[in-house]
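hey team, just a heads up i'm posting the complex here instead of the shared drive bc the drive is being weird again. everything in one block, sequence lines first with there labels, then the predicted structure for the whole assembly after. its two chains so it's a bit long, scroll down
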Amino acid sequence: MELADAVLAGDRLALARLLTRIENGDSEGQRGLAGLYPQGGRAHRIGITGPPGTGKSTLVNELAKVLRAGGESVAVVAVDPTSPFSGGAILGDRIRMRDLSGDPGVFIRSMASRGALGGLSRATGEVVEALDGAGFQTILIETVGAGQAEVDIARAAQTTVVVEAPGLGDDIQAIKAGILEIADVLVVNKADLPGAEASLSALRTTLEFAYSAPPASDSAPGIWTPPLLSTVALRGEGVPELAAAIHRHRSYLQESGEGQRRDQRRSQGELEAALRDLLIAQLKQQLPDGHFESALDEVLARRQTPRQAAERLLDPSPA
Amino acid sequence: MELADAVLAGDRLALARLLTRIENGDSEGQRGLAGLYPQGGRAHRIGITGPPGTGKSTLVNELAKVLRAGGESVAVVAVDPTSPFSGGAILGDRIRMRDLSGDPGVFIRSMASRGALGGLSRATGEVVEALDGAGFQTILIETVGAGQAEVDIARAAQTTVVVEAPGLGDDIQAIKAGILEIADVLVVNKADLPGAEASLSALRTTLEFAYSAPPASDSAPGIWTPPLLSTVALRGEGVPELAAAIHRHRSYLQESGEGQRRDQRRSQGELEAALRDLLIAQLKQQLPDGHFESALDEVLARRQTPRQAAERLLDPSPA
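-- predicted structure starts here --
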């Protein structure tokens, strides 16, 4: 039986195996993904990001429990760009497994740079597509940090939740327009810690400045103002409210047409990335032996910039 | 006069203008870079990275002062992948300018995703090359976070300093093999805070585990064991020792041949990235009107995966 068929028949081991193949970037992974792809496009993909130390993993865990209790099947993709480990063997996963394992409506997968041939962002996108095709109704994509890679990974999502915590947000770097740009929902976790009120009010001010309107539920239809929530994930406080905000955003995406626009933008990005990968692979096959190395020598000798050397490699006319 | 000539004649305004052109990805920027490139390859490039809240900016500021006092000319490139602002206008820069401005041996530049057409990592690499060609002896490349983008940006460096702080390193995520892999020098800043000893000893344990030897100065020649330092950047404490460790690493790079290997790896990565950019630009010119859009439609209708659609676009034989 093909892997994709086994996955569609509910075989969890086949799903885990397929995700590993996809991470490895091999052809069986691509075939399996192609088999699942036509079934996909129905899951709600939720990105959850923020700096280390904000308690994101605990929050994702609690959110998964709340969504499960509401009857949704949930897949969690925990992406750690700085970890060399992949495949669910890391300590953090084992801890979270204790709470959620044994429930067939939950699937947890961790991913890391090392496991992902051809880029974590490519692999994450494809793993999410496979889980979507496999029938999970909600996919939580958790990433550490909020650098460009994390923003790219969050683009695999339809709803992005940005998590902050008290005490991290005090210095100049902390509250950034760049973060607000990707946030559909803002959460201050660890809201029982001192400084929570200060973090909340700083974020509220920044939001008001960015949206020129208070983050209220009475905003004009068709315009989404990111709500600002506070949670204490360790005790589950505020998590049902977070789930509700995520559901509200999903409805907004559907009603405003913004969801379709985001899906289109995402697909276009994925298509361009696939083209880039294929083009460089083709070029490496086509270039005569030694040409790439000579170009590299020119760069190392500082006779040409990388850009100049690349232009010359691709120029069919003799120099 | 060409921009590159003005830069080589010491014109700081011309340098600032050239860096903006490079960020914009325009042809004048490429020409200027090509003019400076043959002069480069002499600077020591030092990457400084770590999570938000560790006091990196202050540490970089103090380090620049110590290096200046030693007679080196210093350029600082502050890269913030989450900030939309570029070009030196942000608050943090103005604060650090107070200390360092007016000194012609120092040049400070901040960069952000928004300013960098074609990717922050491409632009950062080229800005560093330009500063190298312009004659700065030391280039400090400061990045926020330690995700994949930051690791890529750190690859523009020859010596990478990873900064931690007490209290951030307590949870499971904190001490990562992935970080150790890129660290040539490890610093616990804010070492006057409670928990500093715990952070230091946790990092020491991880280092000993990773290198199977204590991080001592008596290690075998030709093998670099990342030293673990503690600093209180706000008071300048430990910063001369950090400068010394960086200089030791520079000597190690030269004597072991590792420096040459790293330069080669970096140039190869830059050449491949330039090839990717040119190939996709060529393809977009060559594809008949509407072909890309039809491929995208196939993906959106979920009849093909992005990979399948890309393969079909590049396949010259009719389907």
